[in-house]
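Record format v2
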Amino acid sequence: MTDRSFHVYDTTLRDGAQQEGIALSVADKLTIALLLDELGVGFIEGGWPGAVPKDTEFFQRAAKELDLRNAELAAFGATRKPGTRASEDPQVRALLDSEAPVVTLVAKSDLRHAERALRTTGEENLGMIADTVAFLRREGRRVFVDAEHFFDGFAFDAAYSRAAVLTAFEAGAEVVALCDTNGGMLPDQVRDVVLDVRAAAGPDAVLGMHAHNDSGCAVANTLAAVDAGCVHVQGTVNGYGERTGNADLLAVVANLELKRGRPVLARAADGDGGLPELTRIAHAISEITNISPFARQPYVGASAFAHKAGLHASAIKVDPDLYQHTDPALVGNDMRMLVSEMAGRASIELKGRQLGHELAARPEVLSRVTSRVKDAEANGYTFEAADASFELLLVEEMDGARPAYFRVESWRTIVERNGGRGTPAVAEATVKLHAGGERIVATAEGNGPVNALDQALRSALLRVYPELESFELIDFKVRILDQTHGTDAVTRVLIETSDGHTSWSTVGVGPNLIEASWEALTDSAIWGLRHAGVPAR
Amino acid sequence: MTDRSFHVYDTTLRDGAQQEGIALSVADKLTIALLLDELGVGFIEGGWPGAVPKDTEFFQRAAKELDLRNAELAAFGATRKPGTRASEDPQVRALLDSEAPVVTLVAKSDLRHAERALRTTGEENLGMIADTVAFLRREGRRVFVDAEHFFDGFAFDAAYSRAAVLTAFEAGAEVVALCDTNGGMLPDQVRDVVLDVRAAAGPDAVLGMHAHNDSGCAVANTLAAVDAGCVHVQGTVNGYGERTGNADLLAVVANLELKRGRPVLARAADGDGGLPELTRIAHAISEITNISPFARQPYVGASAFAHKAGLHASAIKVDPDLYQHTDPALVGNDMRMLVSEMAGRASIELKGRQLGHELAARPEVLSRVTSRVKDAEANGYTFEAADASFELLLVEEMDGARPAYFRVESWRTIVERNGGRGTPAVAEATVKLHAGGERIVATAEGNGPVNALDQALRSALLRVYPELESFELIDFKVRILDQTHGTDAVTRVLIETSDGHTSWSTVGVGPNLIEASWEALTDSAIWGLRHAGVPAR
């Protein structure tokens, strides 16, 4: 049974988004929140409403659109300004307006930061903590406090840092998370400080840990804090965050569940979610952040359970547990290296069934599909985020061919700019294809080459397939995949299309971005027509 | 003074080379060995002579060519085969032939591995350890023993694992390194086991630690072992290694020197080498392994000391030590301010100073730059990963115009495919521009439209600016930025260019991917020429 009194608190959307190179849209944040909920975290810190306009919008949309099965949303903000009242501080009011059930307040707990960064006194800083916590409690919110720069502050003036924590609890804070904001602590220091604070705050005080990885010990520091009595852990998916990143929440929860025997992730009533989804969710989120996954990442990395074939290969086959620290299936990873959810026959069979195709009775089709998926993934395809392309591949192997809605003769796209900096470029495309017994040539303009190709393809097909009218390209993602020594990079394009009722995703891969996009565009049209029950004309 | 009785033992060339995607030539290994020696490690494990032909050659060439100022070379190998004599085992003889002053023997210390992988008895395995160690000692070598799978073995049968260690010491081993081969330990377990072994082996026994990062705790596990009495640490540069990698030796030594006050790296008589070289050497080695550096790597990563939050920029300027766990100069790294969404005047001023432009005395320029950066970021630009574009913007505001190396009249790119699925597409581009007093028209092909434009621009400019010859596009990132409902998406392109010595990044944004790429390509050429001191011709 999951221990609900233990908090798994994710801050990917707030502190993780501080990472260089991460820029999340509101839609990205909503999608990530759903994935985190599926994983089974207890709290999702969504951002800083009032300070960051996009975060204000996130909470507005989340209140209406986000259907979480387990996690609670937390809004992050600061204690009130010096010399004001919490109730009159617009930044504090914005936290209320966010309608998040939990508010996490960052509070200075290092005297030097209070004096030098806030330019106030230590005493007024304590007053700010007390006043802001008490105000938000009166307004009916659960209040967590992030004691910023706690460990460095404790080393400088332990009494003051302790007082900041006690003030927060006295004012009604439910949790105080001790933050190693600069990330330089080592596990033994963390343990000693947490034990000291526990002794001061009492055994019932709910203490948390917020670690950064500057000394390479964020995961170990978090575990040391838990061993010393913390029952609330903060971290980010894939360890995203400023500088060296935050504690990788995935490694933290995997260690707690698998090495400490402490179930901390919530599971759905049907047993879904939790640790077996760890690898899939880690990779899905990296698709959204567009940060390449780190192959050596503990538990979920593509290499995490990979063994160089050699001396011990047969021994590994007989006694896998002698060569791995844990069963990779427990975290949804794979000893065989192909990290994809799709790689094994069993999961492909399952996926086929989900899409309405029973493959159990057709083992030869299942074998061919498995082998094509493996080949395709080795070449840069990913089907995790492209169900429609996967289904077309499946249909092709089941029926012997993909649906023949049209036959392409040629296509061309031209982008040109006739002028210097500032002159807009223009894009056009021409498509020649055969459909409905005719040869059709269509040309269209677009705001870029892919858009022009999309318009030209659509224009060519519309007279034969008017059903295409409702299809709209709603998302387009590009990823350059590094290849190993000496080979060229390849480009992967993911396209999402909507017909107003449902949406579907297709993938294309090639040395050339336009070519990869064309593959995804045509797959999208074919899948959409097939799904609508349109016969090939 | 460096503690010479403490061993920093590097195994990048042996265990690190097990990483997927690393393939080192003998010349690569010799170069890396020199860099490791410069860093000041005590021991360099060069490979497994006799088992790996390239490693045999490495030791042959090292004996003749490698002039190490401090480090000793170690040859890695295994205990003799069951049922033979060490003196007659060709693999053991190859260790002698390597002429390495130190031999590190891997020995089974988990009873299950002795029985199931070696298919021998526990007793014979102990005999193999005793016999092989004693033989090599008689031949005048220093002998270290890697007790493989020690921690898992200890959990299964502590008495047997302890006996393996004691046998090695009794036979004359100078060091026994306890190996967490499967990498799943946590620091408290490591500490308890090391304390147990120390009690059994006596206070003078030299124990070492060899950690892998499967639980995300390799660095902390190594420190826990040192705290419990180990005086020999093994690891690899950048944490290279199989699966999740080995303990990152760089983070281990930085933590020992900076956080434990324990100087462990040797310095040259002139003070050269050691920790201040950490970042440079980490990056130099990643050039040789051709593994992209991990930006979030502790101490040496490009982001390790980068700050994003514009809010605190003014405070960081005054009190940098309140915002960093250690002075980046101590490890040869640099504090870097990221120009980000929250860009304030203070962070732009600081950024300008880092790039060598003093803006404090020119407040009107600072205002214009700040306002342009804010506008640009609102339109999708990001300068945190595009220093070169930021500097061009700065220079434009300081000098009134950007450097006028060339004037573009027009460009065009065409991508076409004449055939159905499977036919390759072809891309070409034409650029018309004015430079060096001429009008130049150049056309080039490429594997995609951006590559074709890059080739055509380069071809057009080369006759006027031969300096461009050395520039190479080394990374290309594309991101589609979702805009809010109802507006078109914009595309952001980041390009990294290298001239073989340094690399720089530029950004382009537009509704059209090709247009955005063109902007980043031309900025890259301009920045590179300006940086090389080339005058506009």
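The two ends of chain B are 55 Å apart (CA to CA).
Confidence is low (pLDDT under 50) at residues 483-487 of chain B.
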